Amino acid sequence: MNSFELNKILGAILGTCLIVLSLNIAAGAIFAPEKPAKPGYAIAVQEHGAGDKAVAKEPEQPMEAMMASASMEKGQATAKQCAACHTFEKGGPNRVGPNLWNIVGRPKASVAGFNYSAAMKAKGGAWTFGDLYAYLANPRGFIPGTNMTFAGLSRGQQRADVIDFLRSHADSPVPMPKAAAK
Ligand code: HEC
Predict the structure, then answer these.
(1) I want to staple 92 with a disulfide (CB 3.0 to 4.6 A). Which of 6, 11, 67, 99 is the partner?
(2) Cβ atoms within 10 Å of 137's Cβ, excluding its own
(3) Burial of 142 (0-12, 13-18, 19+ CB in 10 A)
(4) Mean pLDDT in the chain?
């Protein structure tokens, strides 16, 4: 291969590069890509705010209605979560939490020998259906400072079931709450 031929080849390569380069510039000018403000992929998803859910969710029945349709069997199943810390039978020992025999209608913080939190002792009054219903939904919301480290049962019906189960654990179960007379 003489130097003339080599020049021709190099020239061809150089020429091609130039053409590619200028095509690239021209294409860039014509098809300027739209750069997103933020790097990454734009994924189109519909956002469902908490507001949508609140609208879709049915309003909960009042506590009395929940109690009226409570299932003790379901309550017993849910009470397994409580059994890690509580006993339910008469004369049962205190565990992490106090024994819960006769809890419906029992004065708060009244099990002798159990070390209640100051918050529980200060709450006062007896455990009404309404108080149990509120406490079991959100223990630390109802009694800020309670030692009961239980997240709570968010479903009203589930709480009513457990309360019905607790109600049955008494010598003379407290009658079911009646819906407020209209
Ligand atoms: C992680 C342990 C734990 C679990 C689980 C738990 N509790 Fe408790 N519970 C406690 C403790 C501790 C207290 C005492 C709270 C205080 O003194 O502030 C308590 C207190 C109570 C009281 C008040 C008792 C009284 O004598 O005034 C009720 C009622 C109660 N729990 C019901 C329940 C129910 C029903 C469940 C299940 C749905 C449950 N707890 C699950 C630990 C627990």
Answers:
(1) 99
(2) 16
(3) middle
(4) 88
Q: How far apart are CA 156 and CA 161, in angstroms?
A: 9
Amino acid 21: pLDDT:
81
50-76 pLDDT, tens digit per residue, is: 555 545 566 778 999 999 999 999 999
- The label of the residue with tokens 């407290």 reads 174
Q: Tens digits of per-residue pLDDT, 77-130?
A: 999 999 999 999 999 999 999 999 999 999 999 999 999 999 999 999 999 999
| Non-local CB neighbours of 122 within 8 Å, separated by 6+ positions | none
Query: Between vectors from CA 180 to CA 172 and to CA 125, what angle results, nearest 5°?
Result: 55
Euclidean distance between CA atoms 118 and 145, whole angstroms: 8
How many CA atoms within 13 Å lie on the side-chain side of 64?
6
What separation in Å is there between the alpha carbon of 108 and the centre of ligand 1? Answer: 11
